[in-house]
Design brief:
The chain is built from nine helices and ten strands. By secondary structure, it is an alpha/beta fold. The chain folds into two domains: 144 residues, HUPs (Rossmann fold); 126 residues, Rossmann fold, CATH 3.40.50.620. A ten-stranded mixed β-sheet has the order 3-2-1-4-5-10-9-6-7-8, with helices on both faces. Strand 7, helix 6 and strand 8 form a beta-alpha-beta unit.
Length: 285
């Protein structure tokens, strides 16, 4: 993960996410691109009849570049002479959020996209309203969502939550996760949420086989497995985040799995809004 992409709308939430990501980039020796998107009117609700003159787009781009320069200088103020300091570059473009993020990610071989969970302030450019769910659905790179409550500091343990229904892709994601965990010397905890009745011997055999494959193919000694008993998946994940001494929760975004359960419905939406640790989302294959 040599380069991180930071989408920003210059809000306090986004600034906190960038500060968190900057600290992480220093630890793993990754460079940084800060990106601001001037959103096309088509992406803004109830603006189908609005057209933006070129001169207005030009003024918005100038404002964006000015704010990006301020943000770059803010990060440069954190540089130290005795440690790695990420190279920082800035990009400002007009378009849709996910299209620009995916295009920049492809061109610059981005390893990780780091963004705030939501924002209702700032220039009203990148994260107008809440674009987190749209980024989860459409961004093609690993996406690290940072809540405002996330503490900036060492990362010691990353939980990878899975239902073991797609072990081949899970293994690919764990290989990618190892690239992040290795320079941090962080533990990777592979976890599964099961109801109070536990799981049968056939499922246990599938888990054992998966862990053997992890041991054979992932050259990293700090990988463990743990079952969490809970009646509902989101309750188990919430317990793990609050009581499992986890610094980052990671999972794969696939349709019809417990990730959908986590993000759909009023109860689970409330949980996401109040989750206290960063959420790392791997795109589906």
């Amino acid at each position: 993960m040599k380069t991180f992409l930071f989408p920003s709308d210059f809000s306090e939430n986004a600034k906190h996410a960038i500060s968190y990501g900057y600290s992480l980039a220093k630890q793993v020796k990754a460079n940084i691109i800060i990106c601001n998107v001037i959103i096309e009117p088509a992406e803004i609700p109830q603006t189908g009849m609005v057209s933006w003159p070129m001169v207005e787009s030009g003024l918005l781009l100038k404002d964006s570049e000015h704010e990006l320069d301020i943000l770059k200088k803010y990060l440069e103020g954190k540089e130290e002479t005795i440690s790695f300091n990420p190279a920082i570059s800035c990009i400002s473009e007009v378009g849709t959020v996910t299209d620009i993020i995916n295009n920049v990610s492809h061109i610059h071989d981005i390893g990780l996209v780091v963004a705030g969970t939501h924002s209702n302030s700032g220039l009203g450019t990148l994260l107008l309203g809440n674009h987190a769910s749209k980024m989860i659905d459409f961004v093609k790179k690993p996406l690290l969502l940072i809540p405002t409550s996330a503490n900036i500091g060492p990362i010691n343990k990353i939980a990878f939550a899975t239902d073991f229904k797609n072990p081949e892709h899970d293994l690919e994601c764990i290989l990618k996760l190892t690239r992040l965990a290795r320079p941090l010397n962080a533990e990777i905890l592979i976890t599964h949420i099961v109801d109070d009745g536990g799981h049968d011997s056939e499922f246990q055999h599938r888990v054992d086989k998966f862990m053997v494959n992890v041991s054979d193919k992932v050259n990293y000694p700090h990988i463990y497995y743990r079952v969490v008993n809970a009646k509902h998946t989101n309750n188990g994940l919430e317990w793990l985040c609050n009581h499992g001494t986890i610094d980052i929760m990671a999972m794969v975004h696939r349709s019809h799995n417990f990730f959908d359960e986590l993000f759909n419905g009023s109860h689970t939406q409330k949980m996401v809004k109040h989750i206290a640790i960063p959420l790392l989302v791997f795109p589906s294959n």
